[in-house]
Amino acid sequence: MACLNILFLFLLDDVFHFLWLLRGSSSPLLSFPSGSHLVCSLVDKHPDWRILNLDNLDYCCSSRSLESVEDRENYTFIRGDVCNSRLVNHIFNTEPVDAIFHLAAKTHVESSFQSPSSFHHVNVDGTKVLLGAAYRARHQPRRFIYVSTDEVYGASTDQVFDESSPMRPSNPYSATKAAAEFLVTSYWDKFKFPVIITRSNNIYGPRQYTEKVIPRFLSLLQMDKKCTIQGTLPISRHFLFVDDAIKAFLLLLEKGTVGEIYNVGTTCEIPIVQLARELVKMVKNVPDSEVTDWLEFVPDRPLVDLRYPIRCEKLLQLGWKAQVSWAEGIRRTVKWYQDNPDFWSDTSKDQGPGGEREETADPVRSVHHLMEQ
């Protein structure tokens, strides 16, 4: 692939999460959260691309996720916010961005019921700011890849969703992702702005924040606490290992058709109770007869979707296939959390009042200074 300048926008929440600018020897590439794994992979494999990371360092983010690349010559970090139109416009006005990966989002479903306006602000308003800045840029981007979620389809007991299935979001989080999708597609319909949308299953792997189900169970077990399972309904999720997700996103950058939507998923569907039992056996090394002792059923939250089955024929036709088995992916994930038990224990030190991360006083000035270096 030719040298690109790519801007990545990520929120470290779901293993993916920062605002990145990758700049090659001629012009940059811009991307937004699927995060630290994708950025580290690109920094390592493409030393001719310069990566600028603009991250708000929200509660679910850790700068430690990027320690392996922070001293690389082709990587720069700036603290900032995708909703800051002055900052985002400055980036697009001063850097020739070729491609955008927009993965930044607030994603915790239960929190979205408690604070729907904050989810709308980040997921919808942030997308609006980014689209506007990218479209008005002097150097027109060649790709804008928006990473959405399978949850926009709503729940299903027997129907398998393809990209033509109607969106029926059932919680404030998925509603904001669906709304952002409409914004993205409007730029294709109106301006033929080269967008691509992905709808992915649950992505898991090392460094994922502990509010998500796999790291939450692992963290509880490491503290000798029980896995808390909400309700007694047969809830299941499809899990895609982060390495396979990265390969899908990069394949779509290279071969995806603009104006199209692509499901990114797997046939690996795991009931949540089975997931908890597997993790108990892996972490606690107890016999089957004692596994139940480490499970606790708690009251369910309202409107829990049972499952989100999707089919990915369009992506498979481009040559993608999930390579990491569930057994291998969960083994690597468990080992990482066992080797790094304190990784997420000190995130509060980077937070400002009220648990919010503090932004630089003048991020635009900071960006300008870093660009001159």
Automatic annotation (TrEMBL):
Keyword Lipid biosynthesis attached: no
Chain positions covered by the region annotation Disordered: 343-373
Domain NAD(P)-binding: 35-333
Biological processes annotated in GO: nucleotide-sugar metabolic process
Cofactors demanded by this protein: NAD(+)
InterPro entries (UniProt xref): dTDP_Gluc_deHydtase (IPR005888), NAD(P)-bd_dom (IPR016040), NAD(P)-bd_dom_sf (IPR036291)
Entry-linked Pfam families: GDP_Man_Dehyd (PF16363)
NAD among keywords: yes
Keywords on record: Lyase, NAD, Signal
Protein origin, superkingdom: Eukaryota
Endpoints of the signal sequence: 1-17
A GO term for molecular function: dTDP-glucose 4,6-dehydratase activity
UniProt name for this protein: NAD(P)-binding domain-containing protein
